[in-house]
């Protein structure tokens, strides 16, 4: 016994001595893990431009560590770094999903600096995904955050993002305005690398406006700064821009010499986008100098690098092939490349629509499950209520019966016995009547629920029938046209102009099918329940300009002019879903183009009141009767007036526009008389 006590005392003494060392070891391990996590994130950010594969690996490791430790801030940071790495590898769809996850976490943290960076990078990611409307919304929010925090460097970055997006939309005036402001703010910050970068951006804007002298000065300035900082890759970017200026001014020999000098360094880079850009530019210069075979070799090399990508660069390479074959007068090869280019453009355009369709299907299925659960819960509540009511009635009847029996015992007379018997009979009859009433009420309730369910099922069946009718009628037409035009291109060796016109017609018909499918998907989501909106601060004027550019080709085909004067600064600022508001404006503007005669002018203007933003669209069509106005916004309605060039109209656009506007807390008004055209006004709550 004494030995056991000695052993126990010794063990407790050793445990008390070892405990502090164990706690210290755990603290050291925790600090080491935090240091390792921070180091991985810092190294991943540093390698974005030079080694995106390693950067992606480090970001994934950091993400796993952060989730293991429950560190939400570093989890969001790792998601941002991983999205940037994937964007560098042109996996843009996955990158947008990761950015959305990161922003959802950061919104709950209250970290303004992290939020500013994530919103800015989200803008660049959606721009790379060719979703300019969402990119503009993110850049505008990044600018708002930077202005609120008085962060000049972040303001410079946000203006640069808006400038790049505007340049992509061919809005050179607005692109130049944003890039000029970005450079001015960068000069206030005084960071040489930032100044050089935004001087190059501004130079590209001036190059787009054909201000070659101004562009050359800015490119030479950025080149001098990058050389001083020993940033060779960025310096080669500036030299590439100078070669573009030489090409624009017709100095082909100088442009070729510069591009050949930077090509070896491009081949050593891990990323292939910069190399592909250089190869395409060099091939274009060689084409203009008549060196067709050498130009073809460089384009074939570029094609090998972008073969597995789904990015605008692949379309650029196909355009360069078509232009080269056309210069060689090899028109069949040029047309083949244009067909590939059209297929690739439609494929990339459809990615965003497919993603939205998957989201709608998931939302619809979830809402169906929730509705079924709610229905079962309601049925269970009804049954429980009826059971409790029956129990209360029986308890009350038992109490009354007991009281009657007590009176019988006390009176002990025949008269009271007879009265008690009569009372018991009445109580039994009352219980029977009560039970019958409860049963009837339950049956009526069940019958009413059955009627509601039947009506809902019949309504769903009617919607399905209308969907099938629309699909079979409106999709069959353009698909048949595409088949016929494709067959004629294969068999007919007509002139180049005729073949190009048929290619354009094929693209137009394919665009009709895509537009109809998107409207059907949106209508299905609206029929299923409230469509989820992604609200964020935006400028409705920017969204309107982007929509006009996307539909301008329709107006050009009918020799129409679209006029939208710049509103006052800040007039379009509001909270909304940029993609959905783009859909509203696109449906209204597309109708104005369809129902206005060729050669007419379509006017848009924007106004702001103390509480609302108004966007009006006026067409020059035949107008709308009072009878048609009453059913104008009903789905699948086709009115007495018809498109002026025989365009299709499936009757969904105005219904979708009204539903989306209503969910934003706004309204749509129409003002029209027969023979005087129509004016549609969208009114939304101001920011």
Question: How would you sum up this structure, described in words?
Answer:
The chain has helices at residues 2-46, 52-69, 72-88, 92-106, 112-128, 132-149, 152-168, 172-189, 192-208, 212-228, 232-248, 252-267, 273-288, 292-306, 312-327, 331-411, 414-491, 496-528, 540-557, 578-595, 626-630, 653-663; strands spanning 536-539, 561-563, 573-576, 601-608, 612-618, 667-672, 678-685. With 687 residues, it is mainly alpha-helical. The strands form 2 sheets. It has a 5-stranded mixed sheet with strand order 2-4-5-7-6, covered by helices on one side. A two-stranded antiparallel sheet has the order 1-3. The protein starts with a helix and ends with a strand. Mean pLDDT is 79; it is low at 1-6 and 10-15.
């Amino acid at each position: 016994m004494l030995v056991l006590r000695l052993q126990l005392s010794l063990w407790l003494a050793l445990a008390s001595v070892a405990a502090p060392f164990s706690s210290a070891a755990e603290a050291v391990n925790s600090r080491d893990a935090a240091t390792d996590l921070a180091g991985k994130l810092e190294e991943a950010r540093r390698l974005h431009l030079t080694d995106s594969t390693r950067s992606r690996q480090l970001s994934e490791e950091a993400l796993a560590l952060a989730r293991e430790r429950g560190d939400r801030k570093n989890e969001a940071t790792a998601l941002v770094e991983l999205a940037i790495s994937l964007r560098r590898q042109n996996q843009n769809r996955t990158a947008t999903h990761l950015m959305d996850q990161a922003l959802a976490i950061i919104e709950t943290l209250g970290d303004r600096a992290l939020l500013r960076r994530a919103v800015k990078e989200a803008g660049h990611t959606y721009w790379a995904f060719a979703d300019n409307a969402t990119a503009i919304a993110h850049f505008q929010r990044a600018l708002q955050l930077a202005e609120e925090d008085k962060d000049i460097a972040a303001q410079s970055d946000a203006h640069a993002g808006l400038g790049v997006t505007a340049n992509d939309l061919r809005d050179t005036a607005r692109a130049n305005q944003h890039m000029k402001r970005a450079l001015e703010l960068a000069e206030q910050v005084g960071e040489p690398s930032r100044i050089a970068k935004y001087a190059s951006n501004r130079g590209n804007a001036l190059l787009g406006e054909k201000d070659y002298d101004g562009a050359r000065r800015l490119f030479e300035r950025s080149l001098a700064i990058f050389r001083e900082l020993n940033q060779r890759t960025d310096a080669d970017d500036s030299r590439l821009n100078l070669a573009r200026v030489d090409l624009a001014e017709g100095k082909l020999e100088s442009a070729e010499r510069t591009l050949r000098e930077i090509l070896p360094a491009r081949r050593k880079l891990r990323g292939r986008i910069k190399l592909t850009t250089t190869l395409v530019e060099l091939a274009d210069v060689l084409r203009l100098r008549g060196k067709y075979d050498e130009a073809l070799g460089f384009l074939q090399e570029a094609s090998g690098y972008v073969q597995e990508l789904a990015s605008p660069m692949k379309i650029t390479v196909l355009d360069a092939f078509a232009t080269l074959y056309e210069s060689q007068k090899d028109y069949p090869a040029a047309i083949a490349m244009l067909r590939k280019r059209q297929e690739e453009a439609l494929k990339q355009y459809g990615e965003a629509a497919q993603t939205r369709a998957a989201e709608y299907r998931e939302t619809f299925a979830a809402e169906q499950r929730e509705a079924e659960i709610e229905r079962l819960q309601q049925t269970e509540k009804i049954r429980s209520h009826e059971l409790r009511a029956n129990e209360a009635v029986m308890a009350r009847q038992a109490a009354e019966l007991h009281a009657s029996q007590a009176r019988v015992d006390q009176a002990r007379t025949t008269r009271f016995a007879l009265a008690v018997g009569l009372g018991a009979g009445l109580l039994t009859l009352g219980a029977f009547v009560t039970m019958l009433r409860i049963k009837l009420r339950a049956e009526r309730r069940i019958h009413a629920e059955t009627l509601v369910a039947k009506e809902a099922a019949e309504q769903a069946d009617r919607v399905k029938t209308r969907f099938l009718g629309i699909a079979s009628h409106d999709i069959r037409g353009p698909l048949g046209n595409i088949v016929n035009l494709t067959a004629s291109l294969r068999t007919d060796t007509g002139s180049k102009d005729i073949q190009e016109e048929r290619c354009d017609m094929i693209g137009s018909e394919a665009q009709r099918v895509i537009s109809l499918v998107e409207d059907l998907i949106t209508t299905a989501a609206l029929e299923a329940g409230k469509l989820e909106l992604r609200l964020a601060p935006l400028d409705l004027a920017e969204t309107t300009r982007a929509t006009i550019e996307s539909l301008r080709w329709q107006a050009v085909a009918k020799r129409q002019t679209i006029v939208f004067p710049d509103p006052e600064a800040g007039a379009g600022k509001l909270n909304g879903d940029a993609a959905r508001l783009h859909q509203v404006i696109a449906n209204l503007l597309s109708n104005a183009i369809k129902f206005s005669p060729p050669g007419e002018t379509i006017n848009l203007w924007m106004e702001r009141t103390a509480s609302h933003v108004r966007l009006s669209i006026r067409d020059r069509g035949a107008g709308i009767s009072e009878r048609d106005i009453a059913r104008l916004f009903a789905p699948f309605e086709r009115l007495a007036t018809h498109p002026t060039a025989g365009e299709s109209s499936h009757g969904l656009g105005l219904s979708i526009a009204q539903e989306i506007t209503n969910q934003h807390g706004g309204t749509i008004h129409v003002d029209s008389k027969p023979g005087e055209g129509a004016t549609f006004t969208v009114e939304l709550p101001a920011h």
